Each structure stands twice: as C-alpha cells, then as structure tokens.
Amino acid sequence: MRTKLLGLFGAAMLVQATTATAEELNLYTTREPKLVEPLLESFKTDTGITVNTIFLKDGMPERIEQEGAASPADVLMTVDIGNLVDLVDRGLTQPVQSEVLSAAIPENLRDKEGNWFALSLRARALYAAKDLDLTSFQYEDLAKPEWKGKVCIRSGQHPYNVALTAAYITHHGADETKAWLEGVKANLARKAGGGDRDVARDIMGGICDIGIANTYYVGLMRSGAGGPEQEEWVKSIKLVLPTFENGGTQVNVSGAAVAKNAPNKEQAVKLLEYLVSDAAQKIYAEANFEYPVKAGIEVSPLVGEFGELKVDSTDLTAIARERKAASELAEQVGFDN
Predict the structure, then answer these.
(1) Is the dihedral of CA 4, 9, 10, 14 positive or negative?
(2) How far apart are CA 106 and CA 113, in angstroms?
C-alpha cells in the first residue's frame, strides 16, 4: 500500500511539474484560420509554446472590454491599420520593447511606443488591361480626364479605399483630396462597388481599362484559389505598383499587439518576434501572397514579377488618424452614388 501511495504521489507530482513548466499563450485574431494556423504550428515546433486561438469575425475590442482585467487574451492580431490603432486608442494594448521587432520592422510600420507591429503588407495597386502601354502610374493620375469612363473601383467607404484616401490626405491635404475624389468619380465606368477581384472581371469584360485593388488578390486568382473563372479574369490584366507624387506605394497591414492584461506576456512577445523571423515571413508570403514586412524575404512568384514594392514612408498611425476625414469626404462627393 505504501509503495502504491508513493507511486501515485510521484505521478501527481510529475503532472504538476509538467503543468507548471508547459508554456502557452492565448491569441485573439480576426484572420482566417487557414492563414494563421501554419504560422502557429511552425511557432510551436520551433519554441514548444502552445497557442490557444480564438477566431473572431468582428467585435474583438468589445469582447476584450467586456472581459476586463480578467481577459485571457495575450496577443491581438488583426488586419487594417485602423483596427490596430483602435485597439490602442481604447486602451486594450501595452507597449513592448523588443530589439528583434525594432530591427525587423521599419519605423513607419510600427507604433512609436511599441503598442502595435505590422507583420505583413498588402499594396493598393493598379489593375490594368494587358494591352495598355502602361508600366508606371501615380495615384494622382486616377483623376485625370484621360481616364474618363475607364476606371473601376469598389466602394469609397470600404476600409481599403478609406485608407487610400486617408493616405492621400496626408500627402495633399483635405481640399486637394476632395478634388481628387471628384475627379476619380467622374472617371468611373460604373458605380463604385463590388470587390477587388471584380475589377479584373470588369476589365476582361471591357467595362473599364484600369482599377484599384489589392495585390494579393492577383496571387489568389492566379493560384486557382478562386476557381477557373477567376483564373480567366486575371489573365486579362497586368498589375502596376502606383506611387504618390514624391512618395511610394500605399500599403495596409496585418499586425498584432500584446493585450493590456496579457497573463502570458513573455510568451506573447516571443510569438511576435517569431512572426518576423525569416521562416514566418516566408509563410506570410506563400500562404496569402502578401508582402513580407521584413526586408530580404522573397515575395511569392505569383505577385513578385510585378516589380519591387517601394513602400510609402508616411507613418501608418498618421494615415489612420485621417480615416474619419477620408470617409466624410467620400460622403460629401457622393462617391458611391
């Protein structure tokens, strides 16, 4: 009996020791599981840390606020600079100081106080009919009369276009941006709406010659992920990386932050640092045809052939602060009407 009790006691101590030393963290994310899971599996293999993941379609800030100080969230991962800045403004993040993150991520693609970090990029690009003699383009050109009746674009109130308009404000001010929006609207071949991939469809259909859409959709269509119909759409276009006058290409980001009340902060920082490693950045490039945030990582061949991405140097937080003004300007000019 004594031997049996000692055995049970030893087993109990082993379980307790295993539980005490096991590392884990809790991730809240709005990214699709198929994009996140390869990264998390690679992270666990590399570090031994388990990531418990809550996938949220929306409502992340509200959920964390409701959970309060008892929130189990360690890392908050989302898409769009506006969503990242909102988390900071609502007091749901905490600053992180990391030499690894600072070295890997350009200064304009991370919060100055360390409250959020970009992890991958998607550029707002030009889709153009293949037969057009067009190798360079500026966002300002969209409003030129030569493109009257030739432009397709999704809603001016969609976050992708609100971010582009906000970036335009940072470059040119509100008055010039309003005039630009009026010019783009006058050039539309159809009512603003639909999705980015519909721009390729409508170029193939002869409805328009050019349009604005995200780069990674080209990779998705070319890969066959959207089906054979979309493979035909993308064959009709070429992709050009526009720039601002005296600037670069406008980008938006996927990114992450450490939650204010993170119970596993050390592990949370390890995850963020892993996500800017060469291995993780390569997964970002291959899984969703996004641009790596870290220099020196190859882009997927399905989008890399369109040339080097020269990211606009405007601070993303400054762009995010202009989102409300951008939305209001689109409303004032009746962009979607």
Answers:
(1) positive
(2) 14
Residue written as token pair 């002869």: 206
Annotated binding site for Fe cation: 216-217
Q: For residues 156 and 58, give the distance between their C-alpha atoms in angstroms, rounded to a whole number.
A: 21
Percent of the chain that is helix, strand, coil (3-state, to 5)? 50, 20, 35
Q: CA-CA distance, 216 to 225, in Å (whole number)?
A: 12
* Exposure string for 93-102, b = 16+ CB within 10 A, e = fewer: bbebebeebe
CA 28 from chain center: how many Å?
A: 16
Contacts of 98 (CB under 8 A, 6+ apart): 114, 269, 272, 273
Residue 264: pLDDT above 60?
Answer: yes
All domains of the chain in start order, with CATH? 24-121+251-304 (3.40.190.10), 123-249+311-332 (3.40.190.10)
67 CB-near residues (< 8 Å, 6+ apart): 73
3 state DSSP class of 62? helix
> Tokens for 215?
């780069």
d(CA 164, CA 282): 26
DSSP helix/strand/coil, 271: helix
Q: For residues 81 and 186, what is the distance between their CA atoms, to the nearest angstrom?
A: 29
Per the annotation, binding residues are: 216-217
Please state the rounded mean pLDDT for residues 110-128. 97
The SS3 assignment for 210 reads strand
Cβ neighbours of 296 (radius 10 Å): 8
- Among 230, 224, 227, smallest CA distance to 196 is for 230
3 state SS of 74: coil
The predicted-structure confidence for 17-68, as pLDDT tens digits, reads as follows 333 347 999 999 999 898 899 999 999 999 999 999 999 998 999 999 999 9
Mean residue pLDDT of the chain comes to 92
